[in-house]
């Protein structure tokens, strides 16, 4: 359901904002925060986000609506103001639309779920989702497909 909403909103955003997005100059020296869960990456991210002059950050709203926040943010915050809890369920941290948010939520939405974070939400299907973690699994699948094609060709 959410992907259909995001796709519809993205069409509108592309129509109204495509030129502005294309013409936006990006900084030459981005900062990437990379680390395993529970190692302080969120804390570092939140500290850097306090420096509005030197760093940009993705908000919770932008992460939830990565394809439409340029035009939909004002209306979306009004529309969904009663939907979000005031704290995160796992650690009781403050939560609202304007707080810094890591981009993995947006990445997961934009990729159609082909993200390693999908396993956190669907733990019982972890083995099925494992192939999206690396190219090795896909390479094995391709090798198997190639062997199957060769067998078919030999039969015919």
Note down, in words, how this protein is organized.
With about 160 residues, the protein is mainly α. It has helices at about 1-20, 40-50, 60-65, 70-80, 105-110, 120, 125-130, 135-155. The model has no long low-confidence stretch (mean pLDDT about 80).
In summary, what is this structure?
With 156 residues, the chain is an all-alpha fold. Helices cover 53% and strands 0% of the residues. The protein is built from eight helices and no strands.
How many individual β-strands? 0
- Helix/strand order: HHHHHHHH
Structural class: mainly alpha
In the predicted model, the low-confidence regions spanning at least 5 consecutive residues are none
Radius of gyration: 20 Å
Biggest pleated-sheet summary: none
The percentage helix is: 40-55%
Number of helices: 8
- Rounded mean pLDDT is 82
Strand fraction band? Answer: under 5%
Q: Give the overall shape, derived from the CA principal axes.
A: globular
Distance between the termini: 45 Å
């Amino acid at each position: 359901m959410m992907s259909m909403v995001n796709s519809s909103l993205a069409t509108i955003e592309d129509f109204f904002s495509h030129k502005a997005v294309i013409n936006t100059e990006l900084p030459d020296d981005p900062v990437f925060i990379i680390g395993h869960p529970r190692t302080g990456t969120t804390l570092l991210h939140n500290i850097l986000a306090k420096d509005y002059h030197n760093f940009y950050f993705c908000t919770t709203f932008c992460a939830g609506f990565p394809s439409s926040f340029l035009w939909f943010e004002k209306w979306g915050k009004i529309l969904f103001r009663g939907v979000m809890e005031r704290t995160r369920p796992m650690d009781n941290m403050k939560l609202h639309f304007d707080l810094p948010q890591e981009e993995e939520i947006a990445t997961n939405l934009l990729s159609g779920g082909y993200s390693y974070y999908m396993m956190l939400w669907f733990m019982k299907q972890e083995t099925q989702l494992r192939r999206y973690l690396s190219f090795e699994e896909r390479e094995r699948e391709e090798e198997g497909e190639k062997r199957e094609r060769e067998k078919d060709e030999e039969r015919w």
